Amino acid sequence: LTIFEWTRKLAPGHILFFSLENPVPRIQPYWDPQPPYQAQKLSISEPEAKKEMESLLIKACNYRMVADVPVGIFLSGGYDSTAITAILQGQQTEKLKTFTIGFYEESFNEARYAKRVADYLQTDHTEHYCTTREAQEIIPEIPFFCDEPFGDASIIPTTLVSRLARKEVTVSLSADGGDEMGGGYPKYPLAIDFMRRIQRIPEAMRPPAGKLLRNIPAGWLDRLMHNPAAGFKRDRISELMGDSRVTTVKIMDSLLSRVLSDAQIQRMMKDSGPANPPCFGKEMLQDSQLSQLDQMLLADYLTYLPDDILCKVDRASMSQSLESREPLLDHHLMEFAATLPDSLKIHGGQKKYLLKQIVHDYVPEELMERPKMGFGVPVAAWLRNDLKYLSEEYMNPHDFERHGLFNLEFTREIMQEFFSGNKNYEVIFWYLLIFQMWYTKWMD
């Protein structure tokens, strides 16, 4: 589906055939990530698995270095980009060109970690610290280059690092797919833990407990759970407790990924309109025999990667005329990882376990161990201060009334909560702003 009527996307792993003799296009798949997950798990020791994965990593990285133009690497200092950089730099005497974007807001800044890795591996490293002014220049371009409303704010630093790299290279390697391959996102163990907690409650008691939870005031729940998001997600937790067919994929989708619940979406929309397509996570793998972890990894391979991560990298890099390549999405590597037991993906609470053991052979462990940071940006702080003019330009009642899609009372509530500092409303505020900017660009 796309937001434009009469326009569809070609699904990932599919090829379209079209000829003048037969104007009806034919579509067929050429690769599918599901069979490797459904295959029997390998009976393999950790040393054997490590050796095979490293061999596949080396082949995947070398294959994507084949070019008649300069090639660089996006380096964040995390395990995925470090694995690619270390493997490639270890095989050549010429210094690789690596690129990093940093932020002056320390909680979002990965640049210092990337520089430590670059110094150790002795790459030709370039870093650039992003200013609010540079963000101001990127944000208005997002609706144009993305074609559709695109809500992942990390497209801003991705565009900036692509611009930085394009000054010296025309091809750059990115390190997306490592978290989906090795269970690297925090949401995976969180969903498994939440599932375990639900299962401790007798099945007959779960629906009444869910209803009781729904009657606890949100503020009380926040204080009780010591979590400011507990009250905001109260109804979703209640719904999951009453679901007799709850899965980790549903938990990951409803509780850990979605910004708004179904009830909140109904409040936001002025008219219900046509029924929304069913949420992918609720329908997929309902009767799957896969492990809880593999269900979530496969769900992200089929949705989060193509619809968010890869879309972001593609639009950001191509907006700067830079070709981006993804070694960790090599199909041989993915197929092997899919057949590994869960214990080699998350082991003793350590995520991406096997990949980390490989990286530690190239880079000292003490150089790598730090809290996981997504490729985020301090966009909420910018929008409350220097970029506040964007909300004034695109999000006043008149702007929302032009299309009449949203309930003005709810949009006012979102804006009030956002500017009061409520973190629960930061992402939905950004989504609304991006939608308004897209509408102005494409529909007015």
Summarize the SSE layout with pairings.
Layout: E1 14-17, E2 26-29, H1 34-38, H2 46-63, E3 71-74, H3 79-89, E4 97-103, H4 111-121, E5 124-130, H5 132-138, H6 142-146, H7 155-166, E6 171-173, H8 178-182, H9 187-200, H10 206-214, H11 218-225, H12 234-241, H13 248-257, H14 262-268, H15 280-283, H16 292-302, H17 304-319, E7 323-325, H18 331-338, E8 346-347, E9 350-351, H19 353-359, H20 365-368, H21 379-384, H22 388-394, H23 397-401, H24 408-419, H25 426-442
Task: Describe the protein's architecture and organization.
- The protein has 25 helices and nine strands.
- Helix content is 51%, strand content 8%.
- It has a five-stranded parallel β-sheet, sandwiched between helices.
- The longest helix has 18 residues, at 46-63.
- It has 444 residues and is of the alpha/beta class.
- The protein is globular, with a radius of gyration of 23 Å.
- The mean pLDDT is 90.
- β1 (14-17) and β2 (26-29) form a beta hairpin.
- It starts with 13 loop residues before the first strand and ends with a helix.
- α2 packs antiparallel against α18, α3 packs parallel to α19 (353-359) and α9 (187-200) crosses α13.
